[in-house]
Amino acid sequence: MNRAERVLSVMKGGKADCVPAGFWFHYRPDYSVQEMVDAHIKLYRETGMDIIKIMQDYAYPISGEITCAEDWYKISIKGTDSEEFDKMVSVIKGIRKEAGDDVLLFQTMFGPFKAACMAFGDETLMKYSKEAPEAVKAGVQIIADGLEKWAKGYLEAGADGIYYSAQFGEIGRFEQEEWANLVRPSDLQILNVAEKMPGKYNILHICGEPEYNFRTHVDWFKDYPADLVNWSVKDNGYGLEKGRETFGKAILGGMNNKGNVLNGPVEAITEEVNAILDGFGTKGIMIGADCTIQGQNIRLDYIKAAVEAAHNYKV
Hints:
- The chain is α/β, with parallel strands linked by helices.
- Helices cover 47% and strands 13% of the residues.
- The chain is built from 13 helices and nine strands.
- A seven-stranded parallel sheet has the order 1-4-5-6-7-8-9, with helices on both faces.
- The protein is globular.
- The two termini are 14 Å apart.
């Protein structure tokens, strides 16, 4: 099996020749297109991982100023004819040219609600979400309509799927009814782009925010369209086996993103991977981390050790 076949086998419930693995971390937002391509290819080639997750480390071009509720109706996001979109498409095409066709490329996308947070700040977004939810919903819809076109454009440019970061289900942020009204519809709008395109896939990453101790209502997302599902096991006390029961989908993850894969040593990394697979089994899993690897002195040799431990585990 090549890498694409291996990951597709896991996503479709089959048995791969070995357990696949994939890890990632953020890059500087001032990287040129070529620097971004080179960074992704370096990680891919030096670690031997089975997938390329293209990071969305450039800001979405959202305009507007929020000083009152009515301002949410006036915000805007640039379209697929923009320089910002072209830059990301160039990254996708550059990575595909270097990596070839035997590996799946997943373009990271942040949800429209998170995009609004990045543009206007968490405090502002939450204030108006409580005081004027319909205004916020209208503004987020503007962003969602734009990002729906971006998602389609990414897939048409050569990405095999979307790696979707689903946020704002954190414990203590919204009641479920509020979340279902404000956040869920725009999430589904973006996820449905790949869901409806033949030969395209979704990886769902359920992400928490630091101000909420990274804890989120994992089960709120149980019916989101996804081919692989990822969440923070360590922060939510929500084990892989429980996730398999909840989602009925293939699982990505298991490793502490701030633990052994960041700090080593190699022996501890191998032990962690083996323990995950001893407990979960080898079917329907791709080894990865709770989230992006975060911390100082990220080492590719440590990531490679995790990938090799997954590959060497007896299936």
